[in-house]
Design brief:
This protein has 247 residues and is an alpha+beta fold. It has helices at 3-24, 38-58, 74-94, 110-133, 142-154, 210-217, 232-241, and strands at 170-176, 182-187, 193-195, 204-208, 227-230. A five-stranded mixed β-sheet has the order 3-2-1-4-5. The longest helix is centred in the middle third of the chain and has 24 residues, at 110-133. The mean pLDDT is 97.
Length: 247
């Protein structure tokens, strides 16, 4: 997806998140984030939005810590979230294509990185807000969902921080049935290596729509949401060790 499409997705996802959070109320538990209430979700995501905006507007070329989460609640907290989301969308929209600033995953440019990362950060937490509200969860477009899977597998889990490791080499395949996207994750005691192909056998394959794979791989849906073939222990290994944490 190009940067403009990702900024549009960020805009949409943030508005949906705020709408769901407002409907749920600040005290509502967030089933997909055990221990959190909606107020925690808003404080966290709003802080991340402001942290990202600072790189875009202040041009930090090294890691810059985020500010503290606000001691706000209720309508005041929701307004604060909406303001920060709007500022981030505007900062991305107005940023020059040759922007230079710090980023932490491979990307065509810093601007492309921040648009992609914040679009998916917000989309996943929008799912959290909708789970707190109850009712239907808004389905991401297949292309957007596939892009988020790609970021997770080929960027986040290509880092030394990844805890998805095996004592002996194994392969996990991920196949989106509604797109032409297929990933093969080569696991070992080192950093996972993911390629966009389906060459060779796989020890375990997860298949389903891009939407269901996106939500499952980001641990927002149970493994039973997708089809599983082969060694289920590899899927359980993913479930137990793949979480991406803030901080």
């Amino acid at each position: 997806m190009d940067t403009a499409e990702l900024i549009n997705a960020l805009d949409r996802e943030g508005r949906l998140l705020a709408e769901a959070a407002g409907a749920a109320g600040p005290d509502a538990p967030v089933p997909t984030c055990p221990g959190w209430q909606v107020r925690d979700l808003l404080r966290h995501t709003g802080t991340v939005h402001r942290w990202a905006t600072a790189y875009l507007t202040e041009g930090h070329t090294a890691f810059h810590p985020s500010g503290d989460e606000p001691d706000l609640d209720g309508d005041e907290l929701l307004d604060w979230f909406r303001e920060g989301h709007r500022t981030l969308v505007d900062a991305l929209t107005g940023a020059p294509k040759d922007l230079e600033c710090w980023h932490f995953l491979p990307a065509a440019s810093p601007l492309a990185f921040w648009a992609r990362r914040q679009a998916h950060e917000t989309a996943v937490h929008r799912v959290d807000a909708e789970s707190a509200r109850g009712g239907d969860v808004t389905a991401p477009e297949p292309e957007f969902a596939a892009d988020g899977i790609d970021e997770l597998l080929r960027a986040f889990h290509a880092r030394e921080k990844s805890r998805v490791r095996t004592r002996t080499p194994r392969t996990l395949r991920v196949r989106a049935t509604d797109t032409d996207a297929v990933w093969t994750v080569h696991l070992s005691d080192g950093v996972p290596r993911t390629v966009r192909d389906d060459d060779g056998p796989a020890d375990c394959e997860l298949s389903g729509t891009a939407r269901e794979l996106y939500l499952t791989l980001w641990n927002r849906r149970p493994l039973s949401s997708v089809a599983l073939a082969g060694d289920a222990s590899l899927a359980e290994l993913w479930r137990a060790n793949s979480a991406i944490t803030w901080g």
